[in-house]
# Entry
Amino acid sequence: MTTGLERVLRPGRIGRLALPHRIVMGAMHLGWENRDDDGRALAAFYLARVAGGAGLMVTGGAAVSAAGADVPGFGVLDDAAFRDRLRRVAGEVGAAGGLLALQLFHAGRYARPAADGPRPVAPSAVPSPISRLTPDALPAAGVARIVEDFARGAHHARELGFSAVEIMGSEGYLIDQFLSPLTNRRDDEWGGDPQRRMRFGVAVVRAVRAAVGADFPVVMRMTGDDLLPGGTDRDTVAQYARALVAAGADALNVGVGWHESPVPTVQAVVPPGHWVPVASVVKAAVGGLPVLASNRINRLTQAEAILAGTTLDLVSMARPFLADPALVERSRAGRPVNICVACNQACIDRSLVGAVVSCMVNPLVGREADPGSGAAPAGTDPTASAELPASTDPTGSADPPMPAEPVIHVEPVTRAGPVVRVGAVAGSRAVAVVGAGPAGLRAAHDLALAGHRVTVYEADREPGGQFRLACRVPGKADYAETIRFLTAELTRLGVVLHTGRPVAGADEDLLRRYDGVIVATGVVPRRPDLPGGALPHVRDYGTAFTDDALGRRVAVIGGGGIAVDLAHLASEPGAGPPRQVTILLRGDRLAPRMGRSTRWAVLAELRRRQVTVVTGVRGLRVDPDAVHLVDGTGAARSVPADTVVVAAGQLPADALVRTVRRVGVWHRVVGGARDTVGLDAVRAIAEGHAAALAFQRAARGTGRALRVGEPA
# Structure
């Protein structure tokens, strides 16, 4: 056992359910709960986390009725086919020694139904900024029916083989809507004062308890602070928590904020552990009952500090289990962990629109059932060769012929972490990965896991690529952890990493030594033809990110995510007076491609720091003291600036591609080197993963991929 995690790794308990440690994997809607595969993919997702040491896991929401479904395609417990899938999931997780709680869910006014679906319902007809619909106010009989729906859902959970249930009463969904005076304007037995507004949530817990019996664990996910002006006050929250306990809850999992709250809760700008005091207030109200802290906790060391410094009993972590299924076992063993960076790009942002969830730093999410089956992303270099030449080695020695089938070691589902590992077979191939940014490192990692001999060449003195820049932005320090994790894994797997070694047109002989080459050389900043652009105080964004000598007046030319990150970095409080930062963009909307769950929070932070944004810019000209322009209103303006940063796009760093094609070696081009249109880290890392799979398919020559095994 690793020292320093004694409290985290201490066994716990919820009701009569014994827990192996104090970490609970929080609920996440994944987007494939209703996939027509008999529950295979969903089971594989949870089994990978069991193998990585997860204790109690909570499923994404299962709607207790059709009207309670969040989005079209959401699983509904009245659907017998959905229950059959859940039965398989619960059965396989239980057989592997895992613990799985089913979350009982009703969206209320947040529901976004299909055109032919049932209307959203809520305690009162208060419009929803999430669904942009006005729900129907429930009659008293309808309220009672929903209480019965929760009870029936709990009965299903026990009958299907789940270890517990969690009632979703947080984040602004239906139960929260009954509790809040903002959304409950009734004056009957279900509303009118705090006691009557509490009644619905209490009635749900009481009905669920009656449905499952005294010995089945019931967790209530409740909101400790809704972060809404005029919302539920803290005295009411404390009374409500005590009433939930009296009604039969075995534990309270404390969430923070509603989806419509104007305060960020899970974004990278929120410091880790920021919301722990909210859970501590609930714990003080209920005494000995187990209470879980949650929101923006992404390391077991943070959880250890929470358990050591408070009276809280358990810590809920959700997205970190997407990033690293083996989070617990890696931490227990003192191994590097693939840290969740709270980008939200492939998880929350997709979930909010009903899309399939994945993870930026772990593209295997959703592919656990068939980790080698991921198709190469659309647009992958069509001229890349599909066949491999006879195997060669960089040292000049020839390998034996590749066997028809590799040696695949299928390891039992245990808490050791790996699920499937492909051994270093006699026919393993030599692969060069050029570029050690996120895409290249991911490709090298997956190839090495598959048993190939991998060498990485990086032109810069350090690996990391664009993530080395991103980790300097406030709230994005954890991007450095992604690089640290991948480079540590490459060392463990025997990958050779050459830094300060560019590969160029003169390296044809070097490239011929390899069976395959993955070009992951990234991007270069675009430098538009700008009058005054050659002045010494004009920098491209790459230089600006690493330059600690920015002036006190900074003008950023560009309107994308990089420009926003630069403004965030330049406006960070520090020694001396605050910088005057101005963003100049051609369009009328800043960072339009930034994720919907993050954009508003980051822009609010820029406003708080008094960053000026000028839209509709044209006619730019730089002189030594200012940037001159015409703004969107047609007015001529001069923006004082002693540092001008150009963040006006990127170009592929693709000079090596022509050389690789000329050599004739099997190759793939990934990430920004392939194309910068629509480029983001999610796509780049996924393409690195897909390139590794493509090489394996070509290496085998059978059209079927090898399995990239260890959870990453």
